[in-house]
Design a protein that fits this description.
about 110 residues, mainly alpha, rod-shaped
Amino acid sequence: MLQNVINSIIDAENEAEVIVKDATVEAKESFLKAKTDSEKMIKDNSKEVKESYRQIVAEANELADKEYDKIIADGSVEAEKLLNDSQEQINDAAKFIAGRLLEKYGNS
């Protein structure tokens, strides 16, 4: 009877060792799988973030180019208007000066 109890205890200890070893191996495998999976997720998410970033930059550049073109077009129109106004003022000033000179010195 005592031998049976001792044998049962020894069997239970052996079984416990096997269970602990199996659990340790399983835990290591689970850890490695989780680590691998998380690294893959990080890599995949990194690719998605980089692609989103590229798209955002491309859209921002496109909007900036359109705004730049609009500003240049508006500036060209304003510059043309200023040039025309300046030409008219120069012509008016030249006529005024010529008229004053003619008044003062006549057709001599």
